[in-house]
Amino acid sequence: MSDLHALIQKSAEKTESILDELLDKEAGLSAPVFEAARYSSLMGGKRLRPFLVKQSCSLFDVEEKTSLRVGAALEMIHTYSLIHDDLPAMDDSDLRRGKPSCHKAFDEVTAILAGDGLLTYAFEVLSDQETHQDPAIRCELVRELAVAAGMHGMVGGQMMDIAAEEKSLTYQDIKVLQDKKTGALFRFALLSGAIIAGKDDQIKSALGQYAEAFGLIFQITDDLLDVEGNADQMGKPVGQDPDKITFVTLLGVEGAKKELQALEKKALEAICLFENKSEYLRLLLQYVISRRN
Ligand code: GRG
After folding, report:
1. CA 265 / ligand 1 centre spacing (Å)
2. Mean pLDDT on 230-252
3. What are 139-173's pLDDT values in tens digits?
4. Side-chain half-sphere of 25: how many Cα atoms within 13 Å?
5. How far apart are CA 6 and CA 212, in angstroms?
6. For residue 250, what are the domain limits?
7. Number of compact structural domains in the chain
8. Which of 11, 85, 94 to mutate to test the pocket of ligand 1 (most atoms within 8 A of CB)?
9. For position 13, which CATH number holds?
10. Is the CB of 191 under 6 A from ligand 1?
11. Model pTM score
12. I want to staple 57 with a disulfide (CB 3.0 to 4.6 A). Which of 32, 67, 80, 191 is the partner?
């Protein structure tokens, strides 16, 4: 497992450095939006999504420059979603990763614009020929990320989450909601290597099945951390909304832990066709299950 930790750390450093390179420092009247985008993009985070892009790309020997740029574009979308989620109109959160959230460090207008800027810049990066020489592959990456991030994916899931407040949801409802809200970006990450390498539907379906289980494992762990976690390690308060229906309120702590084991088994089965090349995807499941932030 220590190998995996070192690999995640190295991949996170490379993601930080490409984000630093891609995100300009501008002078003049537009400077605050650049500063706020850099502030939120370079303030840490586990960089799990770019790591998944890297692992998916490693299965098919994709060039590192391509996987880094795809990972950076995806991280920009993730960062935009966190900036907007922290706003008073949504989660109203003053802290993110233990530091003032974007609208607290700057102001609401700048935070909204920084989120919008990161969202659109992600597609500028993906569609640039520096990302891949084949325009058909760039186009497929752009389309798949748009589907994952937009109303059919993350934005739709966030709407469902907000609209569901005070409604009683079933396990199936929560699964659909979370699959869109957090699962869709993980799915894009895991499919990215197969898209770039032009792989067939059988390969994409195997990665899709792993992604579905991975997304649920990530979310159930997140819900468990909200009950059992430590605010200092999480970098934000925990247990803020005890009335919210989550996997843990529906399954109970022990039920949720059992579900994690079943999902880990499913995910492992889905990627067995990749044999040794999927070693880190296999180890990553326990890493996510035992994470403390
Ligand atoms: C505003 C369109 C829009 C969408 C927001 C994903 C999301 C939708 C909001 C985030 C709310 C939240 C905390 C969800 C729980 C799961 C999650 C995405 C946690 C944060 O992801 P990590 O743990 O974050 O990968 P780091 O800080 O490591 O990057």
Report:
1. 25
2. 79
3. 999 999 999 999 999 999 999 999 998 788 899 99
4. 4
5. 25
6. 2-289
7. 1
8. 85
9. 1.10.600.10
10. no
11. 0.94
12. 67
